[in-house]
Amino acid sequence: MSGLTDALNLGKTSLATHQTLLDVTGNNIANVNTDGYSRQSVDLGTVPALNFRGFQIGRGVTANNIQRAEDTFLNRQILDKNSGLGEQSAQTTPLAEMETIFNLGNDNLTAKIDQFFDGWEQLSVTPDGSVERDTVLQYGTLLADSFHSMSQDLADLSSQVDEALTSKLAEINQKLAQVADYNQRITTLESTGINANADRDGRDALLEELSFSLGTQSYENNDGNVSVQLPTGLPLISGNRAFSLEATATATGSELQLNLGTTTRPVDANGLGGEFKGLLNLRDQFIPQVQDNLDRLAYTLSTEVNTLHAGGTGLDGSTGQDFFSLSISGGADPWSGAAAGIEVALTASNQVAAGQSSAVGDNTNALLMTELKNAKTMDGAHSFGTFYAKIASDIGLESAQNQLSVTGLEDTMLQLENLRDSKVGVSLEEEMINLIQYQRGFEASAKLLTTVDEMMDTVLSLKR
């Protein structure tokens, strides 16, 4: 009976193994549309053979473990490209808003500059006209208001970018803590010899999200733990311990720090990737650069106009008066804050210096003001209008390049993800073939058990 008992055990292990194969196949089919799910398969092994009367008799099959499909090289490429996509994507909306602020429509700053100098041209025709003088003052006020509005819009945009950064910190820190928890669970489970497939899928999904946000780099250790760090090497996760990113409010915006428990380390755009790098570069470099150019334009325009105006004489006989006043912020450059601080200094239209004397009909100064409109006063290469157009053009170019980069990276990511899906994702066609194959194996195993049972009944009947 021992031979029949061995055959019965062989059928039993075969039946159980094929049941496992069917279970895993069913799980694959159920998760065919689950994001981040990696196809699973059963690692089959032969049960050690039995030596019997000079022969080795096979003892069937067993399921050693359930494995998860993985392509480390592709995952690395996806994380790398994902970081770049995060950096560029984060800048798309702010750059589009900057394009709106510096639009080249009919009511932009260039139009206000042209309007202001056209007012002086009208005054040169009728230098004693009160209406023309009032018009010059009104156009000067509209020009100053336009500078104020654009400067405030840039400040608001910078604040929005800063808020976008700080609002993501809680979510980022939560994800870091979740990865550390996954590390603990994976090492605990796999130390018993069981593959933590579901936990690894969950951890990989979080690592992909972190690369998009921070440009993180991750490395798996021999014990199954994943170490996560910033591009500069600052650690974010070590084993089952996660460090946190914090923000400290300053006058110019929030400063990021990495809390390492016993100490903190400052983190800037150079130490980051992904969305945070893109947003920090906008807040700390591109927006201030645009603001600086706008301030330079306001400062140069006001000083050039003031120089000419101070050399002229108003109808009231006043001389040496500035047309514009400037409230400077006291930054490193003399023009810092000029766009926000420019105002019309004159309080009455008869103070407008159309001539260089108080003589009736003197339009000398008004003519000089008119010529200032097209003079290359900005860097010796641009007029006020063309310098503004260059600022707007640079923003448009930056936005266009950003959109091209986003499109290119999205296409690359799609190709990489499709390639990964073809290697580690679920194919319904393959799973259906496996399902039929494993079903046949299950049926054959059941048939074997039935046959052995009948044989045992036959043997037992011989003893009756």
Description:
By secondary structure, the chain is α+β, with helices and mostly antiparallel strands. It folds into three domains: 2-69 and 427-462, no CATH class; 74-96 and 161-281, no CATH class; 103-157 and 289-402. Helices cover 61% and strands 12% of the residues. The protein contains ten helices and 13 strands. It has helices spanning 2-30, 72-101, 109-125, 130-190, 197-214, 274-310, 338-341, 364-372, 384-424, 428-462, and strands at residues 40-46, 50-52, 55-57, 61-68, 217-220, 226-229, 235-238, 241-242, 244-248, 255-259, 264-267, 324-326, 342-344. The strands form five sheets. A four-stranded antiparallel beta sheet has the order 5-6-7-8, covered by helices on one side. Strands 9-10-11 form a three-stranded antiparallel beta sheet. Helix 3 runs antiparallel to helix 8 (364-372). The two termini are 16 Å apart. 33% of the residues are buried. Belongs to the flagella basal body rod proteins family. This is Flagellar hook-associated protein 1. Keywords: Bacterial flagellum, Cell projection, Cilium, Flagellum, Secreted.
